[in-house]
Amino acid sequence: MLPKATPGPGPEAQYHAFLQEGRFMIQRSPSTGQYVFYPRVAAPGSGAADLEWVAASGLGRIYSITVNRARTGNYNIALVELDEGPRLMTRIEGVETAPIGTRVKARIADLGGEPALVFDIVEQGGAA
Amino acid sequence: MSSTSLRGRTAIAGIGAAGWGESPGRSAIELLGDAALAAIADAGLELKDIDGLCAATSTHAFPTLSVAEYLGIKPTFFDGTNIGGSSFEMHLLQAALALDAGICNAVLICYGSNQRTAGGRLVSMSEPQWHEAPYKPRHPITAYALAAQRHMHEFGTTREMLADIAVAARQWANLNPAAFEQGPLTREEVLNARMVSDPLTTRDCCLVTDGGGACVMVRADQAKNLKQNPAYVLGVGGAHSHRSIAQMKDLTRTVAAESGPRAFAMAGLKQSDVDLVMLYDAFTITTLLFLEDLGFCPKGEGGRFVQDGAIAPGGRLAVNTNGGGLSCVHPGMYGMFLIIEAVTQIRGAAGRRQLATCDIALCHGNGGTLSSQVTALLGGAAAL
Q1: Chain A residues with beta carbon closer than 8 angstroms to that of B136
Q2: Quick one: pLDDT at residue B120?
């Protein structure tokens, strides 16, 4: 078999292009139902290569959170578990920290000149 | 072929250390070289006898090439596996396989770092992960802090319990003249130290020191004829779980729960057979996680298990008798130093901190951000 050049862009570049358009997209394998983040060429574990892009709900919960204490200022780093299942590293905006389990919703912000996901706390009785 | 066929087939015949603490003006490979030569001499061997080489450092892309050139050796077996701080426990397995297969006769496993005097912070070649970088994680501590927070949330573990791990390490260090940090340390001092990444203070974190470490492995039949009492390699098992902390399935459960049973099965041993437990204590939370995941206490009970001096001198389980990465030595990839202390205790050469009985020692290496776990069981002649 000839290893022909795979036409780009790859999943990582496609993900960033979606963010540039203001869309938070994750991958899903129709054959297994598995959601995948970060984006890859195949679903981890199953190897299913039928991944397609779907719009993420953007909703999730804080799985864990820490506050990095630095001379230049404190900031939090959180792991959020999306309702679809995958977990990602992010920042919870507008607070120094928040309890594990807090409902949060994704927003695309400018971090260092590039679009990146951050999360806001969903108010009690709010959209979640 | 059963994996237990490797049990006791090889042994650590020599150990060497160099420049623990501060070694201004000495490079990483100089410290490594000093430790390597000390280990070879300790075994009663000569440099020309070394025909196998395992190495991993934070500063060498091709560690076995750099070390072989520096020492002027031409190994027939070499392995530069780098999975972080647990690399050296994995090197024990690679060396045991190569020796048992007759590919080589004497393997040098070695490490050196001058990170304290060169820069004062943990050095790593580890590349940033694109999906983490925008949030400026300060690895490794960010990942371990996230694991600690999750453990506290799920099991009611407290900062006081974590602090008791640092206090126990210091009490062992106070019995070890080679330990870098000496003197009294109280629970309150750990709790009141500067917060670095919630819930971990500077005193929940390992040291940043210089240091070199090495050991020499040979087949068991040869080890019996060398200078030192052999420390036999009884069992080794490894496991991987993730590269980036967001991909770790459960932040309170490491794959030490997989590497441990593999090592115990190869060695034909169980937890109650172990006299000394050497755990990679990069942060207080790692000691706690590995006590649980290696089966020394139930999952979630680590905090209550370590309270009130239980793992300090005179406690119910001897853990990290050198003072650990928290108080003895931590030049970046600490796994090598677990082996050195285990062999020292098995030989009965640990001075004031010597255990009354140390026939079986467990070394558990951790690498990356709780990513790679390798467990090794070593023992003296009584263990065969």
Answers
A1: 68, 75, 77
A2: 73
pLDDT band at A126 (very low <50, low <70, confident <90, very high): very low
Domain that holds residue A7: 1-56
The answer to whether the CB of B347 falls within 8 A of the CB of B228 is yes
Q: pLDDT digits over B213-256, tens only?
A: 999 999 999 999 999 999 999 999 999 999 999 999 999 999 99
Shared-domain flag, residues A67 and A102: yes
**Which of B149, B170, B138, B165 is CA-nearest to residue B281?**
B165
Count: domains in chain B: 2
Same domain for B215 and B149: no
List the single residue in B134, B138, B196 with the smallest CB-CB distance to A111.
B134
The reply to whether A12 and A28 lie within a common domain is yes
- List the 14-33 stretch of A: residues with Cβ below 8 A of B: none
Q: If you average pLDDT over residues A6-19, what whole number do you get? A: 93
**Domain count across chain A:** 2
* CB B170 within 8 Å of CB B326: yes
B137 contacts on A by Cβ (under 8 Å): 68, 77, 89
Mutation for A interface: B138, B151, B204, B247, most A CBs within 10 A: B247
Mean pLDDT of B295-311: 97
B125 falls within a domain: no
- Where in the sequence is the domain holding B271, given as residue range(s)? 138-200+235-379
The CA distance from B267 to B319, in Å, is 20
Residue B384 lies in a domain: no
Residue B128 lies in a domain: no
Q: What is the domain-level CATH number for residue B162?
A: 3.40.47.10
Residues A1 and A50 in one domain: yes
- Residue B105 · residue B96 · CB < 8 Å: no
Type of residue at A95: V
- Indicate if B215 and B172 belong to the same structural domain: no
Q: Answer whether B245 sits within 8 Å of A91, measured CB to CB.
A: no
Same domain, A72 and A46: no
Question: CB–CB of A116 and B134 under 8 A?
Answer: yes
Residues of chain A contacting residue B150, judged by C-beta atoms under 8 Å apart: 63-64, 100
Cα B268 from Cα B78, distance rounded (Å): 28
Residue of A nearest to B196 (CA): A69
B2 has a pLDDT exceeding 70: no
Predicted confidence at residue A125, as pLDDT, reads 55
Same domain assignment for residues A111 and A98: yes
The predicted pLDDT at position A127 comes to: 46
- Model pLDDT for residues A24-44, shown as the tens digit of each residue: 999 999 999 999 999 999 999
For residues B15-25, average pLDDT: 96
CA distance B198 to chain A (A): 5
Mutate which of A16, A27, A64 to test chain B, going by most B C-beta atoms within 10 A?
A64
Question: Rounded to an integer, what distance in angstroms lies between the CA atom of residue B147 and that of residue B127?
Answer: 21
Residue of A63, A88, A97 lying closest to B131 (CB–CB): A88
Quick one: B290 and B158 in the same domain?
yes
State the Cα–Cα distance between residues B359 and B383, nearest whole angstrom: 6
Residue A128 has pLDDT above 60, yes or no: no
Quote the CA–CA distance of B171 and B186 in Å, as a whole number.
10
